[in-house]
Design a protein that fits this description.
The structure holds two protein chains of two kinds. Chain A has eleven helices and no strands. Chain A is mostly helical. In chain A, helix 1 packs across helix 6 (98-120), helix 4 packs antiparallel against helix 5 (76-89) and helix 7 packs antiparallel against helix 8 (172-189). The radius of gyration of chain B is 13 Å and the shape is globular. The two termini of chain B are 24 Å apart. Classes of the chains: A mainly alpha, B mainly alpha. The A-B interface holds A 47, 50-51, 54, 80-81, 83-85, 87-88, 91-94, 96-102, 105, 159, 163, 166-167, 169-170, 174, 177-178, 181-182 and B 22-23, 25-34, 36-37, 61-62, 64-72.
Chain lengths: 269, 82
Amino acid sequence: MILLSPLTPIEDVLRNVLDWLHGTVGLPWAWSIVALTVIVRLLLVPLTVRQIHSMQNLQRHAPQMKEIQKKYKTDKKKQQEELMKFYRENQINPAASCLPLLAQFPVFIALYFVLREFSKHPPGGDLSWLGHHFVPDITAHANAHWSGYLLLVIYVASQLVSTMLMSSTMDKSQRIMLMVLPVVFVTFLLNFPVGLVIYWVTTNLWTVGQGLITRRLMPKPAVPEKRSSRTPPKEDEAELVAEEPSKPAPAPKPPSQPRRVKRKKKARR
Amino acid sequence: MRHALRAPAYAGMVLVQAYRWTFGVLWGGSCKYHPSCSRYALDALRQYGLLRGSVLAGWRLLRCNPWSHGGVDYAQDQRLFR
């Protein structure tokens, strides 16, 4: 428990916000959790806006990056290294960075403890969600009622979609793990309070929505659009930003190299 | 004896591996640096022990934010501890 003491301020803040959402704003407890999740994600939006900019930059340089990927197709390690060098040279901020992800981690743990405290000493007020027949008690374990199982199904679905949206540059084994892991996690989540599952579902749905909006905001590369009705609109959505080989931009090869060779020859003489 | 002294570092590495197999995969597993933050943490722990390795890994995590540019960055190239 000593290890978790740094979380106490976060817990206090979360608890205060929860109480405020319930007491002052007048939301039921379950909706207070949803609102709290949305607030946390809203606070993270400035970070994601930065990421949108860098993703636009990434898209602009996609053809050259594709070339690098092709050049080092056999050596994955060298390929990644070259890509990273390319990012740096072109001031590209790769969309994923570890810190914003980790920012959610203590919040999630703190929220778990807040909700556990919640279930030990249930406060006054309505503890159901969307009516007593759907979720009777958000402090109960997820496996206590059929609605808990339904929420877990939604959780797995949203988890899969959100990870698919976020992870455009993944190899196959990683994708397979992504498919299996949520199922493993569900076995743990069955003993979690429903309120925590509500949080997890909300944050995943937010991620999905944000991913879709981000994709919409991305300026489409000037590809001569086919105006035929046969162009399936789905294809556009399925395409992943980083993988889009938008234009066959012929990178002008620097003429300096042959010159350097000449100089070397001169020097040898 | 040497191995016994390295036990704390190994404990840290187990924790990082646990992260890699759960949340690391779940969160997309991509980092703007090469090697990734968790890989860097494993290298740092192995080469510099629990305390200095943890400091290096923490510093790397702080650098892996939306305002940095990423790039190639190996644990053995660190300049914090000489």
